[in-house]
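--- STAGE predict ---
source: upstream dedup step, 1 unique chain passed
mode: sequence only
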Amino acid sequence: MLDKGVLVIKTENTFNGEIREVAGQTLASLKDGGDHGHGLKNVKRSVDKYGGSMKIAHGGGVFSAKILLYVTVDIV
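--- STAGE serialize ---
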């Protein structure tokens, strides 16, 4: 959603309810015995680079990421 120069992106995904955290940072779900969610570090780095914010939440079997960016140019 883009409104008055603010772009909000929200995504949700179901998961098995188990999350691995290290040093207070959400790293991965434990789905299928593999690691998932490592791309969130890259997303966070990009969000920070452009002065935005990102909030990660999980509970009730749902994992969500919400990103807020300030847009100063027209998006076509």
